[in-house]
Amino acid sequence: MAAPAVEGAAVTALRAVLHRIQTAAERSGRSFKDVRVVGISKTKPISLIREVYDAGHRCFGENYVQEIIDKAPQLPEDIEWHFVGHLQSNKVKSLLAAVPNLAMFEGVDNEKIANHLDRAVSNMGRDPLKVLVQVNTSGEESKSGVDPSGCVELAKHVKLGCPNLLFSGLMTIGMPDYTSTPENFKTLVNCRNEVCKALGIAEEQCELSMGMSGDFEQA
Predict the structure, then answer these.
(1) What GO molecular function annotations does the UniProt record carry, in alphabetical order (predicted)?
(2) Which residues of 89-126 are buried (b: 16+ CB within 10 A; e: fewer)?
């Protein structure tokens, strides 16, 4: 009888994170099913992503265009790829062309990139692309994202002025040392309240992407 395969470290870590998420969701009165986990796979080899995929995970995120362009064709088509972070306008076409299973772009940080995405999606005949507006909740000059005071106008532009994009919510990336936690989460929640009021949509129609492995319980 063959010995059972030894579970890799990445899969073990994934299971631990999912357990923490379930515990945090129950504590806050939310359903675990309502929480999406995006496995950030930047700089990780194809073999490791495949290992996590084989364990049942389907949602992965990258933030380097060339890396996702190289990886996506080598992996199963049912992966839901997310591009996370700033995207240069001159790389929009190559990203969309190489990754037909790009499920979401996180995030739109100005009208220019929104317009480029909208035109590219239209020209390629793709289904509308889900996007999140990125908000710079920590106030760092080096961080991409619209200032909280401008999130309503940018969300309006995406929803009303970009027919080939699906405004799906807001996202933020806090400081690497988590010193902006939980204030940046509170700021994003406040932004959602303002956006939903301005667009006349329910909060359920405006998801929030926030929290990393070290602070998602607070998110």
Answers:
(1) pyridoxal phosphate binding
(2) eeebeebbebbeebbbbbbbbbbebbbbbbebbeeeee
Rounded Cα–Cα distance for residues 89 and 172 (Å)? 20
Question: Which helix or strand (DSSP H or E) is residue 27 part of?
Answer: helix 9-27
Q: What is the pLDDT of residues 70-86, one digit of tens each?
A: 999 999 999 999 999 89
> For the chain, first and last CA: distance in Å?
46
By CB atoms closer than 10 A (0-12, 13-18, 19+), residue 176 is: exposed
Q: Which residues of the chain, if any, have pLDDT below 50?
A: 1-4
The per-residue pLDDT for 76 is: 97
Condensed to tens digits (0 to 9), the pLDDT of residues 37-49 reads 899 999 999 999 9
